[in-house]
Amino acid sequence: MKKRIRFYNFLLDSIVFLITVVLVSMLLKKHVERESLKYFMIPLYYVYYFVFESISGQTVGKMITKTKVISVNYPERVGLSNIFWRTVSRLIPIDIFSYLFSNRGIHDVLSQTQLKKL
C-alpha cells in the first residue's frame, strides 16, 4: 500500500474527526465545561476507528480512497480482536512515525492487519 494513500486516509479521517469535535462541542457547550471536553473527545477518537473498522473495515477516509482493513491471515474477513488490537496500538506514541521506516504501521503489525485497495 502506498504511503500517500495512507496519508490521505489519515488526513481525511482527521478532518472528519475535527468536524465531529466542533459539532459535539457546540452541542455540549451548555452542559460540559470546555476543559472537560478533552476527556470525552480523546476516547471518541479511538471509538471512531474501532466502530467504523469493526463494522465495515473502513473509516470515512478509507471509503473515499477505496481501501479496506483486512486480516493478514484471513484476507476475506477481519476479526473483532484484530480491530481491537489495531485500535489499542494507535495509542503507541510513535505509531504515526512508523510509516517513515516501513509500509506497515505499528498498528498493522501488532494487529496482524493490512490495507487492501478495493
Describe the structure.
There is one protein chain. The chain is mostly helical. The protein has one domain. Helix content is 57%, strand content 8%. The protein has helices at residues 3-28, 38-56, 60-65, 80-89, 106-111; strands at 67-71, 113-117. The chain has a two-stranded antiparallel ribbon with strand order 1-2. The longest helix is centred in the first third of the chain and has 26 residues, at 3-28. It is a multi-pass membrane protein. This is RDD domain-containing protein. The chain crosses the membrane at residues 7-28, 40-60. It holds the Pfam family RDD.
Mean pLDDT: 91
Strand arrangement, major sheet = 1-2
Task: Look at the helices and sheets and give the structural class.
Answer: mainly alpha
Low-confidence stretches: none
Number of spatially distinct domains: 1
Major β-sheet, in short? Answer: 2 strands, antiparallel
* Count of DSSP-assigned helices: 5
Overall geometry comes to elongated
Q: Could you estimate the helical fraction of the residues in percent? A: 55-70%
Cα end-to-end separation: 11 Å
What's the alpha carbon Rg, rounded to whole Å? Answer: 15 Å
The share of residues in extended strands comes to 5-15%
Number of strands: 2
